[in-house]
Amino acid sequence: MIHIEGVAKRFGGNTVLDGVDLRIAPGEVVSILGASGSGKSTLIRCINGLEKLDGGTISVDGHRVDDPKQLQLARRCCGTVFQLFNLYPHMTALQNITLAPIEVLRVPRRQAEDEARELLASVGLLERADAYPAQLSGGQRQRVGICRALAMKPRYLLLDEVTSALDPEMTAEVLSILAKLAANGTTMLFVTHEIEFARQISNRIVFLERGRLLADLPAAQFFAEDGGLAQPRIAQFLSKMSKS
Amino acid sequence: MQYTSFTPHDLVLLLQGLGISVALFAATTAIGLAIGLAWAMLRYYRTPLLSPLAALLAELLKNSPVLVQLFLVFFGLPVLLETELTPVQAALITLSGNTAAFIYVIAVSAIESVGRDQLEAARVFGLSRWQILRRIVAPQAAAFALGPLTGLLVNQLQVTSLISVIGVVDLTKAGAILNLRTLKPFIVWTVIGLLYYLMARLIAKACARVETRLRAHSEWKGL
């Protein structure tokens, strides 16, 4: 269970998160929607400990992210996939995936490589195992990014706008993999602008606006006239997104 | 045979000078590399007190003439510490310190050139600061550093010629001795210059080879 309680984050005088409460239970797929600058990515960066909290607490399976002693344990539970992939450019796809299992989990190299090859095969990239990131397309890089996160066998997968840097075709490649993961019961916290996809795979949808949660509803209800759409701001956001 | 003509022994003198220059260059580069990298580590680990101290020391060393530093060490240090220093010791201390200062600057900027987003990825996956340094920062920073490092090493090779003024018989001093005896400055200094040139080319070539290896992952082959 990821517990987020009263989380606040400020950058200078700019309040990015303002008392966010959220719980993600194992097996759930939760999508976070909201305009750019609403704090979605910052929330992800708070959960994996890349940003210090200015208020509130976050715990992942009981490990407090805001306690430096427990942060590493909390991080073991979460895998993160980044918007701009953040692959290590001097390592091959395979090395990108095996680095953390070998260094952090102390998995023997052979075993880590076998597991990485299995992951690459599951996303259709087995033959690109020895390619460097610069030799891969954007969609391929993001698929490697997903494999890298999964190689740590995380209980929770944090996805930060993972298709925002990709064209529609590459987006479809990546989304089909995420749909498979969701169907297999992977717990995901999914920051996205792909509203239709979020509707299909999510159990719950959360709407962030200026650092506050405007809605936290089951997916079907979020899109219902008497649910999320009853809120003018959400109705406005969804209508603009569907036009574009 | 006139005393001004060249003798086989002159070649021995020249080779001895060359050997001293190369040995001093190699030794001061190794020591300077170790000290400069250690200073850069103090900064990477944000060590309080020691990190700003290293920065200040590097700043002082790289912004004053090496010749002045050499005089300070050779003439000043023995007075201060009431010891004696041989010219070779003074040259070793001065050139090592000077190289360390520039290595520090190159290492720091190379470390900072490694993309922050990858470091965040590594942190999120639980790698320690040391693991990040060893597996992610160092290999890429080394590739970034090799260009400036080549320039520095070629320059430091030439700077070794300054030690001739405190009486170390390096290549330049050997040239001066030959020049005084033979009175053929054009021939002597041309040969000396060519020898420095050949050594500099060797250094640059070796560095370029290493750089190609370190950049194997990038498609970029230069303009």
What is the gist of this entry?
The complex is a heterodimer of chains A (244) and B (223). Chain A has 244 residues and is an alpha/beta fold.
Helix content, binned percent of chain A: 25-40%
Radius of gyration over C-alpha positions of chain A, nearest whole angstrom: 18 Å
What share of the residues of chain B lie within helices? Answer: over 70%
Number of domains of chain A: 1
Largest interface: A-B, 27 and 20 residues
Low-confidence stretches of chain B: none
Mean pLDDT of chain A: 92
Under the CATH scheme, the architecture of chain B is: Orthogonal Bundle
CATH-defined superfamily of chain B: MetI-like
Low-confidence stretches of chain A: none
The N- to C-terminal Cα distance of chain B equals 56 Å
Structural class by sheet pairing and helices of chain A: alpha/beta
Strands side by side in the biggest sheet of chain A:
6-7-8-3-9-10
What's the number of helices of chain B?
Answer: 8
Question: Would you kindly provide a written description of the structure presented here, covering whatever features stand out?
Answer:
The complex is a heterodimer of chains A (244) and B (223). Helices cover 39% and strands 25% of the residues of chain A. With 244 residues, chain A is an alpha/beta fold. Chain A has a single domain, classed as 3-Layer(aba) Sandwich (Rossmann fold). Chain A has a six-stranded mixed sheet with strand order 6-7-8-3-9-10, with helices on both faces. In chain A, strands 2-1-4-5 form a four-stranded antiparallel sheet, covered by helices on one side. The longest helix of chain A is centred in the C-terminal third of the chain and has 16 residues, at 168-183. The radius of gyration of chain A is 18 Å and the shape is globular. By secondary structure, chain B is mainly α. Chain B has one domain (8-214): MetI-like fold, CATH 1.10.3720. Chain B has helices at residues 8-44, 50-62, 66-81, 87-113, 116-124, 129-159, 171-182, 185-214. In chain B, helix 3 packs across helix 4 (87-113). The N and C termini of chain B lie far apart (56 Å). Classes of the chains: A alpha/beta (244), B mainly alpha (223).
